[in-house]
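To illustrate this point, what follows is a protein record of this kind.

___
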Amino acid sequence: MPVLRNVLCATTVAANIMIAGCGGHETPMPPMAPTPPPSPSGVTANVYILPGATTLGGNAFGDHPVVIYSGETMRWRNFDQTTHALVADTAGVPDFAKTDTLAPGAEQSFLMTRTGSTPFHCTIHPSMTGTLIVQER
């Protein structure tokens, strides 16, 4: 009987260790709600100048093109510790042409109404590049 009790105790302890090591029971994620349509006013899309952007080159704004939908307001937000000024390389495509000088923590918004695609860069740090795409929803 003592041997059986020791085996059961050891089995219970081992099972508890395995469960704890696996993180235990995780609650399933609730289903995602459908994305609401953008509001006609207000900022609906943020574009970030990332910290350390001057050393990130083509990743200064993330590792993918910036995609905005027509009718959204795009807000440039400078999360870097350096001042930047952004300009579209293709004039007139889309509504964004250039920002004012954006000090650390500053932001500037543009209502995007025309579709199109353009590369863009920082006029102060030309190696900081990205691509902006404005498309229909």
User: Anything to note?
Assistant: The helical segments are 2-21. The longest strand covers residues 116-122.
